[in-house]
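Quick one: structure for this chain?
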Amino acid sequence: MQFGEGGAGTFSDGKLNTGVKNERIGWILEQFAEAGASADILYDAKPHIGTDVLVEVVQNLRHEVIDRGGEVRFGHRVTGLSTENGHIAALTVAGPAGSYTLPARQVILAIGHSARDTFAMLRDAGIPMEPKPFAVGVRIEHRQSDMDAQQYKQYAGHPSLPPTSYKLSAHTAAGRGVFSFCVCPGGQVVAAASEAGRVVTNGMSELARDGENINGGLLVSVTPEDFGGTDVLAGVAFQRRLEEAAYALGGGGYAAPAQTVGDFLAHHPSIGPGRVTPTYRPAVRWCDLHDCLPPFVCAALEEALPLLEKKLHGFAAPDAVLTAVETRSSSPVRIVRDNTYQTALRGLYPCGEGAGYAGGILSAAADGMRCAEQIIKEITQHG
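Got it. Here's what it folds into:
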């Protein structure tokens, strides 16, 4: 679910809130609304499309691209680059009928942050990249009604109030950041693996956000010094080790390891749920998450949970559920580009979250527009 039409964002409920100030954001929201999203996104402080609606919205956007002369090739994958005098000349593409060459003088590389095979191809082709910080951790689940009661108090359950969300952060004594991420009110924890033999979790909500639980990522910041290697893709290798450990602890079959907060803080393996029923499918396996998470990640979570409890009572409730592992918070690499948005190989424009220049749907869309505008400028000036 990291790939295909819409990428991972299609299954992560279409959160459109962003801290980026960019004049393109309003126009992007208008395009989503014209493609079928609720008009509420045009004025809501935290715009949200919903997984169930976003699937149709993305299809409508594809139809618009095709109507304007574009072409979409499903099942095709870029496997190589051809160059001429320091400029991109063509792509090697693997398709259902075999490999072929696609001539191209301008290429926007908007691959998403889970395109690990493309990262490896770019590294081997000599395209400059650098490792970058990101974050790893777990999904934490609570009963939506409990969080509503904490934040809305006596007004909890009022029909005019939406399911509540939260945004929390803390810093450990060692300087680690621990924070909530991609919070999904009334949503569910979903399987998000993109490679065999590895478990990855994510979250999503439908438009109504009417599920029993609220879930969010609870993540610990990591830096290249934590990756355990010097290769530019050491962060990818670090992610894979965590995902493989989660798969093994889950017992195979893509069941995810899970533990209650109370047992996690007490270092006791969990044997089952309390009041919070985990939503991850196909299944969870109750265990001790210390057996799959790095010690420094566990230590940071253990220190942060009581701090976050002080900010939102009930957040560290003993029966809240932790499900591992969340590794895809952002790209583990940055594809180096200059102020014309091009790499050292001219004509190649890396953009969006996978390239390391955005975080979320809106900022990635705005970055794509910047690259497109630069291409128009280059063509206008140089032909």
